[in-house]
Amino acid sequence: MAHVMERSPSAFVDMGEESLRQHFLVQLNGQFEGAATGETFNFQGKTDILIRVEDRNIFIAECKFWGGEKAFLETIDQLLGYLSWRDTKTAVVIFSRNRDFSSVVNTILLATEKHPHKKRGPTKEGGTRFKYVFGNPKDANRELFLTVLAFDIPKPEAPHR
Q1: What confidence score (pLDDT) does residue 21 get?
Q2: What domain range is 33 assigned to?
Q3: Which candidate, 47, 52, 59, places its Cα nearest to that of 89?
Q4: 158: helix, coil or strand?
Q5: What pLDDT shows up at residue 9?
Q6: In contact, 47 and 92? CB cutoff 8 Å
Q7: What's the total number of domains in the chain?
Q8: Which of 10, 62, 81, 90 to pair with 49, CA 20 to 30 A apart?
Q9: Would residue 159 count as lying in a domain?
């Protein structure tokens, strides 16, 4: 999706979080044969993306526009609150319209280090994809994988006068 957004920025410039999430769901449903849903109740809340296969959650993600370090850490907490003990594969998907995207990525890396449930990582899988091992807030011995994906989304241009 990062390459798709970078190569066709005008297609994404006016989209909000829900519309962007739908693009991810289309791709995921192609791969997981319709098992990916959006705004789905799980454990103690509604998560933005949930993939359930044979009555088992295999992936849970929360999507947000970049709102700074505090909002990012709150998003991780929000996602962790949606997880049951069995849920172990998760992601925070960040959309950014900031001019200095490198600064956003750097803040993500620094902020994640501060999270109290972070155990290990990151494993960097490219310039904007980072994998971590976190402890489940309700059972620190239960480890889960949290991937942070950041996407540079173009800013809508002001109308020409």
Answers
A1: 87
A2: 2-152
A3: 59
A4: coil
A5: 76
A6: no
A7: 1
A8: 10
A9: no
In a domain, 157, yes or no: no
DSSP character for 33? T
Angle at 105 between CA 74 and CA 99, to 5 degrees: 105
Is 8 within 8 Å of 36 (Cβ atoms)?
Answer: no
Q: Hey, is 133 helix, strand or coil?
A: strand
- Record the tokens describing residue 34, joined without a space: 């319709």
The reported pLDDT for the residue numbered 156 is 66
pLDDT at position 3: 77
CA-CA distance, 61 to 105, in Å (whole number)? 18
Kindly state whether residue 161 falls inside one of the protein's structural domains. no
Mean pLDDT by runs of 10 across the 161 residues of the chain is 78 84 86 85 82 92 96 97 93 94 97 98 96 96 97 72 60
Place of tokens 């992601």: 91
